[in-house]
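Practice problem 4.
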């Protein structure tokens, strides 16, 4: 495989245990960040609520390294049991919440808030249950997930991605507050730079560039910010410049799709959901294309989160622009396959160049 088409993340980058801390003293050791504790009883207590995204490490007698507890033979069986137990408890809570919301909806039919909670709970149940049943119940695959997330959370590139995406969202939020003159009057921001259809038709075409970054309220901004930081930081690790391009042009493509095909009864479009979903699909496609370089099921889990957010918006958020969301997904696919094809052609031409 030529360098231009090789993946930026390989299994060797996250599965190696060479860079994990040494288990000094050859004892039962529990490490959480920079805090280190000793004692078998403490280790056995702390691993009860462990999950594969945790940065907790443990050392056991006879082990040279401090590793995720699923990777130590002395604690792996117990951790596997606790993950199963905690997953069953979580699923039971989701079922209980769904039952409560179902009966509440019988008492107060057509309650949109109740439907939103019910839909969210049902989707979380499917994602959690499906991920465990197909992947995390297998010890080796659970260990893969743990090693990957530990590597990810200690990666300088990932931390840089979190800082960059957080800074961008903070900046956009402050800019919108300034446009609103630090008041809750969102219309002020929309009238200045939002994608207002009437003003766009009047010749202010630049609004298709600025409009998606205006949000219609604090909750809308927080939900978009959380999703953007979550997937944006991971996309940054894969490819900083590609993740930026797919996000920026994904927002434009989504906005243009709404302007052309689905204005409906609304007067304006707002939010970066289209760009976020474009990044989601780009990351999912990348992981599935290079599936041997990632933990089992991680790409499927992210795809499930992406599609779940789309379904939730369709059924539980009447003001959401489904066309913009679908357009973001379509653009993410187009961008991934187009960029992959271009890299393949460029790499082939480079390999065919005569050497002097």
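Answer key:
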């Amino acid at each position: 495989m030529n360098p231009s088409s090789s993946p930026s993340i390989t299994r060797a980058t996250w599965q190696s245990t060479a860079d994990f801390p040494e288990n000094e003293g050859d004892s039962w050791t529990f490490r959480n960040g920079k805090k280190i504790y000793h004692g078998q009883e403490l280790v056995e207590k702390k691993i009860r609520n462990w999950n594969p995204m945790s940065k907790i490490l443990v050392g056991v007698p006879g082990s040279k390294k401090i590793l995720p507890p699923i990777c130590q033979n002395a604690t792996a069986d117990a951790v596997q049991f606790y993950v199963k137990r905690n997953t069953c408890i979580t699923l039971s809570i989701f079922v209980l919440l769904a039952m409560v919301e179902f009966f509440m909806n019988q008492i107060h039919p057509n309650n949109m808030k109740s439907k939103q909670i019910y839909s969210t709970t049902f989707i979380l149940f499917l994602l959690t249950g499906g991920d465990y049943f197909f992947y995390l119940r297998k010890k080796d695959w659970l260990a893969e997930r743990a090693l990957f997330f530990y590597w990810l959370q200690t990666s300088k590139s990932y931390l840089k991605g979190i800082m960059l995406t957080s800074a961008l969202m903070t900046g956009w939020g402050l800019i919108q507050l300034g446009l609103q003159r630090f008041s809750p009057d969102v219309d002020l921001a929309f009238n200045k730079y939002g994608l207002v259809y009437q003003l766009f038709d009047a010749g202010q075409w630049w609004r298709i560039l600025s409009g998606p970054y205006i949000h219609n309220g604090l909750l809308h901004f927080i939900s978009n910010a959380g999703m953007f930081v979550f997937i944006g930081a991971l996309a940054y690790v894969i490819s900083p410049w590609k993740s930026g391009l797919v996000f920026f042009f994904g927002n434009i493509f989504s906005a243009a799709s709404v302007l052309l095909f689905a204005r409906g009864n609304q007067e304006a479009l707002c939010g970066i959901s289209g760009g976020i979903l474009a990044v989601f699909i780009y990351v999912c496609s990348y992981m599935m294309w290079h599936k041997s370089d990632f933990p089992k099921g991680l790409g499927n889990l992210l795809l499930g989160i992406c599609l779940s957010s789309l379904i939730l918006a369709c059924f539980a958020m009447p003001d959401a622009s489904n066309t913009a969301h679908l357009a973001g997904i379509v653009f993410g696919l187009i961008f991934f396959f187009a960029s992959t094809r271009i890299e393949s052609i460029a790499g082939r031409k480079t390999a065919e160049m005569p050497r002097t």
